[in-house]
Records
---
Amino acid sequence: MKHEVKVLARMMVLMIVSLGAGRAALAHHSFAMFDKTKFMTVSGTVRKIEWANPHAYLQVQVPGSNGTSTLYAIECSSPNELSRWGWKYNSIKVGDQISVGLYPLRNGQPGGLLFSVTLANGTVFKGN
């Protein structure tokens, strides 16, 4: 009887650990750093594209009114999700002139969560 209790206890521990590991695999970071109550559009030149998991990223150089420019870091969805929305890894290239709709960062830094990208030819790509 003691042996059966030990085996049952080990099985329970294994089951609990397995369930915990599954939850960790489903975890995702919070989007609380983006203010989804605000929306803004910036236009500029693509400086960098990172087509990587878990999220793709864009860096866009946005000219200012005083002759300076600001580099915006923009978080996108996963490459898998972007592909399902019609993106290809080369849909946007470094040097392209684009307009980006985004939810800005709460801390006021230049960047945000991508909503959409509009290319110079008018093509629109969903971003979130």
Note: The beta strands are 40-50, 57-63, 69-75, 97-104, 111-119, 124-126.
---
Amino acid sequence: MSKRIMILEDDSNLLDLEEMILTYEGYDVTPIRHYESIEYLLDFLPEMILLDVRLGDGYGNSLCQEIKNNPDTAEIPVILISGSNNLQRLAKECNADDFLSKPFNNIDLVKIVKKYDCAKEDVN
């Protein structure tokens, strides 16, 4: 069974690219082009979340903090993605598991996803 990854990214081209790459790698990807509530995320129960910091209608780092503060979602790995110069600080402040700076290449995307995919498998 493939891992369920949710991607929240408001750039349609980048979202399509991320979805294509990760689907090719065997992941079950749920692409979302806008900010969603934590309740919405709970309906999907993703096993990993890739989260853009600046969504058109909200901030990914705020959503990340909500995810990490909720006992039902706190264990889901969250990877912040942004072109922001202060991405490392933002990731630390909202308790993201990791971050990926834009622009990134396909190899970096797959590498960071597999890093947390393997960590989850080691626990089970």
Note: The longest strand covers residues 4-8.
---
Amino acid sequence: MADRLSIGIVANKAGVTPDTIRYYERLGLLPMPTRSPAGYRQYADGVVNRLTLIRNAQQFGFSLRDIASFLRVRENGGKPCHDVRRAAEHMLEAVDRQIAELIATRDQMQQTLRLWGKKLAGISDDQPAYLLETLGASNRERHKGHARLKNQRR
């Protein structure tokens, strides 16, 4: 069968390892390949496209479990397009929440640095400023801000 590819060739073409291919097979992301008389896996060339699709979906943020679910629906004649979009929207919402939390953290850090700058400006270089001790209050305020932010979104 000249049109069949070994696992090494498929892995090389797709930019993954043979172990990744075997793992994807176990998860149901890839169909089980045919075997040579000697028991070696033999793949159709289309498996490279499937691996590329899986890797691209992973890089976008989909879990392997989600990808397997979408592919099963497709293989059973269904159209998972709306489910794919809905899942992507949820991922985007999660990213937006993370960004908001990071911005709040950055703002708190900037405020702390301003306070530390004022504190250091008011003392001589040989005096301790105990800057780290002031972090407890700053951290408590930041966590209160995160809690308020999360409650506002609900």
Note: The mean pLDDT is 90.
---
Amino acid sequence: MSYGLDPNRISPKLFQVHPVEGDTVHVLRAIMGLYFTTIMLWLLGAIRGGPLMRTALIGEIVFMSGLAAGRLLDILLDGWPSPVLIAYTVAELLLAAWGALCLRKFAGMQISAQAFH
């Protein structure tokens, strides 16, 4: 939400972009909306559980690994970014791995629950 709500305050600090105008603001706010709705899916999956939890976990894994893959490709093509973006890459890789572990645990719980029926 940081760069979507107030791009002219955050973007110069994060991206060294001055000023952010027109279509660029539109794109940043659209991305913010995508992130926000994706997070809502994750929260609903955590709260409701069941099949929605599985969907949310798969979505989290795809989302985080996709971001990390794009960042790793950028590192290979363009070199090392700023330290904050390196931290984002590490966090995204860790969150993707955590999601995969949770999905594996969730799948095991589903199999165990079916054995009792």
Note: The radius of gyration is 18 Å.
